[in-house]
Amino acid sequence: MENIANGAPTLTRWERFKSKYFTKHFASKFLTNLLLYLLLFGLAYVVLFPLIMRVSNAVKGYEDVYNANVYIIPQNFTLQYVKEALVRVDLLGKTGWFALWYSALISILQVASATLAGYGFARFKFPGNKLLFACVLFVLIVPPTTITTTLYEFFLDVDPWGMVTASGERMSGWNLCATVIPQSLMAIGCVGYKNGLYIYLMRQYFKGMPGVLEEAAYIDGAKPFKAFFRVMLPSAFTMMVTCFLFGFCWQWTDDIYTTTIAIDLPSLMTKALNYNNGSSDALWNSIQQQTGVLIAVIPLILLFIVCQRFFVEGIERSGITGT
To answer: Looking at domain 86-317, does it have CATH number 1.10.290.10?
Structure first.
């Protein structure tokens, strides 16, 4: 039913409802959004399911392991094994504190070197630019396990230009495998674990920044380093935090370099992976090991919850390209 008021037709409530919801556009949009949400829900379930099972196994009693009626929700809920894993892994003790400052140190060094390298690749043209950047990508795709033996042999007997053995009665060089020096040097030299990724992210970020910012700084008399530190660097804070989060998480969970060039240092992840209660039951030992790993990664989950805004913003900006 239509009423004419001021020359414009007025639709009834039912007619407005039909015109809004009973259309092909609304139906296609609804189905598209429904499929999208179902896809996202399925992906979230696939990603979170292993974590849900680790949490469930951590609070199960031994009786629930072989109980066919128990799947996720335990019948014999207990925190005993979580407490034991917390003590054995030493998350709140010497090992946990060492992992905290060591991971932070290596990550900060990696971010600093990657920021300088990424800025150079993005804003300066020099002979061999593309070749060097190809080497960066090559370092990224080479598995670290292929070079750990060589790194171990190098840092086990460090004797630059024969100065150590020539200066006294020593028959070998310095053994740096029991110190934080090897990974610190690798981080400073942009060849640390996943350092190529951080250089790539920083390059993409600086490449997308307007060139007029630097030009304005140069007009005001700033040199390249001053323009970098005063103009470009402050705006790259979000991306630097993103790289730091990547570096911290990978360093925290590293079980490659910590078992070779840092073998004598306290390793949180090594303790977590080797944790079990000494039982002869292989399945129960596996569950205890998973509990130890869960204890070790809890700080990373909390870190991501706190810093997720920087992480998401940094990933979004890393895809920007420009001149």
So the answer is: no
pLDDT value at position 168? 62
Q: Token pair of 276, please?
A: 């079990």
Alpha carbons 64 and 283: distance in angstroms, whole number? 12
Give the tens place of pLDDT for each residue, 207-239: 888 877 777 878 877 787 888 888 888 888 888
What DSSP element (H or E) covers 281? Answer: none
60: its two tokens: 């199960």
pLDDT range class, residue 315, cuts 50, 70, 90: low
DSSP state string for 159-213: -GGGHHHHTSS-SS-B--TTSSHHHHHHHHTT-STTHHHHHHHHHHHHHTS-THH
Lowest mean pLDDT across 36-40, 63-67, 290-294? 63-67
Rounded to whole angstroms, how far apart are CA atoms 277 and 284?
A: 9
Q: How confident is the model at residue 322 (pLDDT cuts 50, 70, 90)?
A: very low
What pTM did the predictor assign? 0.79
The ranges assigned to domains in the chain are 86-317
CA distance 223 to 186: 29
Residue owning tokens 């399945």: 283
- Tell me the two tokens of residue 139: 């370092």
For 258, list phi and psi in degrees, rounded to 5. Answer: -70, -15
Q: What is the mean pLDDT of residues 23-45?
A: 86
Sign, Cα dihedral of 215, 220, 223, 229: negative
DSSP per residue, 9-56: EE--HHHHHHHHHSSHHHHHHHHHHHHHHHHHHHHHHHHHHHHHHHHH
Question: What is the C-alpha separation between 173 and 170, in angstroms, rounded?
Answer: 7
